[in-house]
Amino acid sequence: CSANGSPGPSAAAAASAKTSAAGGKRSSSDVQPLQAQIQDDLQKASERKRALEAESATKIEPDWLKAVKKVQSNASVALEKARESAEASKESARATAPAARAAAEDEADKERAERTLGERLLPREGVPALGELRAPTSIR
């Protein structure tokens, strides 16, 4: 095996050299070990490939996974704050509604009283207005 985990000279190259030495003919006893060696080489290469993919996935995954988790966390915090704010607004509205209603009723009562007073102060037909009152001529 070389330093990177791949096998050294391939089994196929070794078999080719044997075949050339034997005059170009292969015996079944030569083919079976060659097939076993090729199968073993393929399995090792496949395992190495899976190991490299897993290694690269673990290197890449934490970065994007951290980003996703951070976004989810921020969204959860924002949602919770929005819920709290909405609840506080509801509570505030419940607390201030009676006072606002009472203030509106007071304002309406005040306006009614001013209108009534104004109507009383308005001159009626045959009744002099406040500024027009004079002492009877007999008193003068």
Automatic annotation (TrEMBL):
Spans annotated as Disordered: 1-59, 81-140
Spans traversing the lipid bilayer: none
Biased composition (Basic and acidic residues): 41-59, 81-93, 109-123
Low complexity bias: start-end ranges: 1-26
Bias kind Polar residues: ranges: 30-40
Protein's recorded name: Uncharacterized protein
